[in-house]
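Entry 14. Ran structure prediction on the chain below.
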Amino acid sequence: MPRGQKSKLHAHEKCCRNKAQAQGHKDAQTAAAQEEVASSSSSPFYVDGVPSSPVTVPATTRAVAGVPCQRSDVNATSQVQKSKNSSEASPSTDMSGQDLLTRKASMLVRSLLCKYKVNEPIKKIDMLKIVHKRYKEHFPEILRKASEHMDLVFGLELKEVQPNSHSYNLVCKSDDTGDGSLSSAWRFPIKGILMPLLGVIFLHGNRASEEEVWQFLNILGIYDGKRHFMFGEPRKLITQYLVKEKYLEYRQVPNSDPPRFEFLWGPRAQAETTKMRVLEFLSKANDTVPSAFPSYYEEALRDEEERARAISPTKAGTTSKASTCSKATSRLNSHPE
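Output, structure tokens:
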């Protein structure tokens, strides 16, 4: 073979190898992310599965994890058995259609988080593969549920790149105030763990033991000592970062021997959110309203009233000063020359 042809053939083979290596690296990166998601996600909050052992936890916090609960039973204990064929069942099975669609939406959330982590494009055809072709006619409802969940829990908004393009992007939403005044703790990914933690503390009498907090985090597929694909090292996040940022307080239970620890709301959490907002978050996760949980709702209302009373004297003082100043100005203006 002539030398020129050999050189071209060698260059072509080298180009093919480079492309294959690049694709292999991308595939390995995606596979690693998927494996990390799966290993970090033993609950239906992220994956098509449910706790296989009884877990005692307020029902509203179970709902954040994606476990169905009874609205009227705020302290219920539930045991849900995983079905082998649940991911392929049709809406006409014993499980209600809405429960199945919620489960499919949870699977879609897991996939979206994975793609967001590796900056991979989100396409409708790929999402349909996740939820299975049998659910194609229910896809708009599943996508709506997944989008609402991403928005509520993580502050991520699913947007179509172009109308009718069937390609999407996940974008971080601005904070609730609209002026950028809230810290990154209220944005992705930390919002996904901070709001549920504040809810757990609230629902356990405004202080939750370390055991109760980890029990809840385990339901979300977050384990002590095991790096999470989205939150990193969870113990460091909740006992150091969020404590340093004053969103959580982590302290030893007085007179405990051996020492036990508990979590409370930190001063920044108390300043930047309210019990009512946290209860609204938990209620939305339950697809209900805050008043569906009477005792917590009453406590949240009392908290709102106390905050209003604390603000009123300041406003009254400001109004009084303004009024006095206005009267003085009026007298000066009416004083004869």
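Confidence is low (pLDDT under 50) at residues 28-94, 175-179, 328-337. Will compare against last week's run tomorrow.
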